[in-house]
Description:
Strand order of the largest sheet: 8-7-6-3-9-10
Oligomer: single chain
Helix content: 25-40%
Low-confidence stretches: 1-18
Amino acid sequence: MTKYALLLLIGSKCNISLLPQVQPGELSVIRLFFEWNKATLKSLASQKVASADSTLIASLDNRSWGIPLYWDIASPDSVNKKSVRYRFLDKLSSEDLPKDIYVVEANSNGAKRVIRSFVIYKNKVGHYQARLYMYFGKQWEMRKITELDTCFLSPKLNNFIAKRGLGFNSDDIIISHITGGVRKVQESEYYLGGTLAMDSGIKELIDHGY
């Protein structure tokens, strides 16, 4: 397949990024990568505007600065195919998944850091399942599929943001809703430690999912 350069217009201001040597099949992954990163950063910005807690605002500022470094991107309009997020999307693009999924990024930062994500969806008989993916040696591996007894994730993910200290999560978690045959990020909510509500119904998955 012939490689080519693509001028991609991004956003209403039509910022132009030159993406050399792009394969046609990669365009959907690149578009989703942009959408996903921007949606997560939008969550952090929205929470900051809505908060009057200076300590919480400082934490949100810290994540807004630090998370692009973890994604290994220079800006929300840049692409890095070696990014942990890009590699995850590339992995999902080759898998048979329903059109409506929730991606839960729930790294564990204990004595040994574990990079993991769950993909939650309803199977063909209407039961919730979660696929666990773990990041080893610069690649994602699907480790297991778990049947869920409870899962209450639904659109308007910001409804699951609890007052800090009342949520169950000890580490930060990001939950994203992605839909469609041509995948589109509907929303991506960032939950600081202690802010993901029990109402989400995924505590057991997060605590014992690997």
